[in-house]
Amino acid sequence: MSGSQTGPKPFSSFITELRCIPTFITFPGEIPSAMMSESNADGMMNPEPEHPPADERGKEMEDKLDEIYTSLKELRREVEEKKAPDRLGWDDIAQEIIGAVTFALPFLFTGELWEIAKDISVERSLVILLMTLAIAYLFIAKSQIGNLKKEELFHVPKRLLTVTLIAYLISSGLIYLYGINGIADFTTEQYLNATILISTFAVIGAITVDMVK
Questions:
Q1: How far is CA 135 from CA 158, 160, 187, 204, in A?
Q2: Is residue 52 situated within a structural domain?
Q3: Assigned domain for 76 exists
Q4: Transmembrane residues, as ranges (predicted)?
Q5: What pTM does this model have?
Q6: Which helix (H) or strand (E) holds 170?
Q7: What is the residue range of 28's domain?
């Protein structure tokens, strides 16, 4: 061998040269350093949190609690309104009218009632009137059928006044409207008797529909 020939390189210099060569071989889960972008590097340096911050979670929980509290208040208000006694209103008057008409109509066209109205005396009619008012008073003021608010006018229950007025006006009006007074040939006293007799059922109907809702 000539002196110009060089011997094999040491193993340590081979390793040094190998380290200087950039490698692009990657393994699963590894990111090549030569291909890493600037955004990826920022993402690795500042990773996004997996869960929202504690203050956001606290605000969300507070909103949910406020919503639950509002729902409970609304539910409590509805329950209190249902438990509150029923005040006399236009809806009650409408129901009284419906009840009076419904119960009065079947007896309006009854021939036997016409005959009773002709034969009965005015004194007995007044007794029937007082009996009807007494029954209505017991239903409205003393019974526990409906949750009614105690409302009085001159120490008389308002519902008793409205029921009586509606029942007798409707009974008298229906007799005139259908011409029963002409068909049965009523006198003035007999017309009054027929009104009182029919109103007995009209009063019961008005009270029943008003109280049983």
A1: 15, 10, 28, 9
A2: no
A3: no
A4: 97-114, 120-140, 160-179, 191-212
A5: 0.58
A6: helix 158-177
A7: 11-45
